[in-house]
Amino acid sequence: MSRTVALWILAAFFVVAGANHFLNPGPYLAMMPPYLPWPEGLIIVSGIAEIAGGLAILIAKVRRLAGWGLIALLVAVFPANVQVALHGWPGVQIPQWTLWARLPLQGVLIVWVSWVCRGRIE
User: Fold this and answer.
1) For the chain, which residues make up each domain, given as ranges?
2) What pTM was estimated for this model as a whole?
């Protein structure tokens, strides 16, 4: 897959995922660790960050900075994925093994963001 195609797929992924925070916030609320304050606000902030980051990686002048922002976001939301792996996802019927399998996917996304945002896209 070319870096350009990977960039557009990644951008679409983040924009759609971010929009889903507003269209369907229930699953995101259910996965929030109880020790985090203001879960509704965090869902809004992370949704905005995903949309903004997904769009920003399409702009060459800010792509590298946007990539670092998306990597920071992926690290920041990792505790919610751990919460789900440890305690299940209330209201969502998914096999337990898939909840654990989601954890390494964060690393895959970080590598993907790094790859498409560090080089020149033609």
Assistant:
1) 3-118
2) 0.90
